[in-house]
User: Fold this.
Amino acid sequence: MRTTEYLIATQKESPAEAEIASHQLMIRAGLVRKLASGLYTWLPTGLRVLNKVKEIVRDEMNKASAIEISMPVVQPADLWEASGRWEEYGPELLRIKDRHNRDFVLGPTHEEVITALVKNEISSYKQLPLNLYQIQTKFRDEVRPRFGIMRSREFIMKDAYSFHIDHESLDQTYQRMHQAYCNIFERIGLEYRAVIADSGSIGGAVSHEFHVLAESGEDDIAFSNKSDYAANVELAEVIASGERLSANEDVKTVDTPNAKTIDEVALQLSVEPEYCVKTLIVKASEESAHEYIAIVLRGDHVLNDIKASKHPLVASPLQMASEDEVNKAFGVNFGSIGPLGIACPILVDRSAANCSDFICGANMDGQHYTGVNFDRDVKDYDVADLRNIESGDTSPDGKGTIEIRKGIEVGHIFQLGDKYSNALTCGVLTESGKHQTLQMGCYGIGVTRIVAAAIEQNHDKFGIQWPEAIAPFKVALIPMNMYKSQRVAEVAHRLYADFIAAGVEILFDDRKERPGVMFNDMELIGIPHSIVIGERNLDNLQVEHKNRKTGEKQLLNIDEVVAFITNQAGV
RNA sequence: CGGUGAGUGGCGCAGCUUGGUAGCGCACUUGGUUUGGGUCCAAGGGGUCGUAGGUUCAAAUCCUAUCUCACCGACCA
Assistant:
């Protein structure tokens, strides 16, 4: 490709609204342009990258025996009414009417359509398992589109749906998809983690998210430094390390005037917060036959709402008691609540349960106890996993310690079970001739989001540094003063032809621009290899190669350039 | 949906407080200059100042309404 026949569309400045690197760089490098909130046009360079990602996804899906189809973006509402999601989905579902005033939706996902399809096409267990996918535009009327292409309303998703006679078969395909996803992200060249998204209470994981690690990510990922364990911070189970030490001290009452927080208590008593416990009062569930529950955490730990609300004694969703309610029920204000002698059931976090001789509120304003111990002093309580996992905790699989980093969710795989097949009565006849509802799995990848995530992970102050596998071009050919130097022009044209003959994707900057402009544009666009042709090196029949990622420069003989690139880039 | 802020050539902004008929940088066009890291000079083209209404001799500027967008919180690939 020649720049003079191409649309470069680079910019010096990025729009004020672009907050994160990938958004700024996608606009500055001329990859996308915004049409309206959450709606983007893909310019030629961006589209080349997008297509590379699509091809890798497609290839790995095919290798995993998934079969490509294409379903409509516009879907009739009655399917959504049948699945219950016409009511359930809410305003993110864009609803439209046709000329006959019939209701349709712009598909945010395709479970309904695929299930209806399979219901009609598949009638025997012999045709199973079946795994169908498409790479296609989705529309979700996001509350707040953000970060450019990262969270747009219209986006491209690879969505796959598998159908099975039983759970065992579903599990096999699920594992296969898990592996396919790992292959995809490895091939693209991204640092990622497969994250446990929901450790179902019955039998193992039923959902994994795939996250690309990047500072700008919106999710906190906890992962082991020794194993491949990874989970959302909210969902990661915490196992308490160590054992409780024996009680040495007696309970004493100390004055802690005006100390409302653990930090203030710890400061007044000159101890670290981890030697204190904090007691939080939450609303109890109906079945608990109490009004409130006291939750006890170590002073330096953070309550995990999700875990707490899953406990049978605790109201779901979690509701913290107000200070007035606490005062009314227990005769004490925030700051001096404690488990010792409190008139409600007590839930103790696993880590807090390992504390001994600890400090806690005395249930009298302005006073705390020291030297408190479970069992000896606090007798009736339940232990549960109630806090957020933290950096440095032991990994839940027992291997290594936990690190926490930000992640961008780019993929999600699910074992759906029979939710949709049941609602739309999708089943087959079994070997014994009985009707059997199918088990389903679904597997999504945010194709457009991968492009943004790749930039988040691979850029510097000059621009994008594309991984080879998804770079819009492998090589930028940059001639110095081609319009003045006949020699430079000749070599440039010859190399350009050679690269094309060798099947290398090359961008030949034949604009009549100053060198600085060309260097800056090619670096901003992020092409992995630059070949610079200048009078300077032509006497020795050499040109210069520069690696975008490492910045390394070296001189190459003109005759060797193409081979050098094809060997290095694995073309 | 709640909170905050902004709408002025393609992009980034100034002008608004104190009304007087729109300006700067980038980009674009032309000519010259320069040519291994976003040259420099000159000339030029392009804007219903988000929209509607009002106040006024006069509105980008003041008032009212409305629309849109962005940023911060709960959802998602």
Remarks:
- Residues 199-204 of chain A have pLDDT under 50 and may be disordered.
- The longest strand of chain A covers residues 402-417.
- Chain A has 15 helices and 30 strands.
- Residues 353 and 383 of chain A are 7 Å apart (CA to CA).
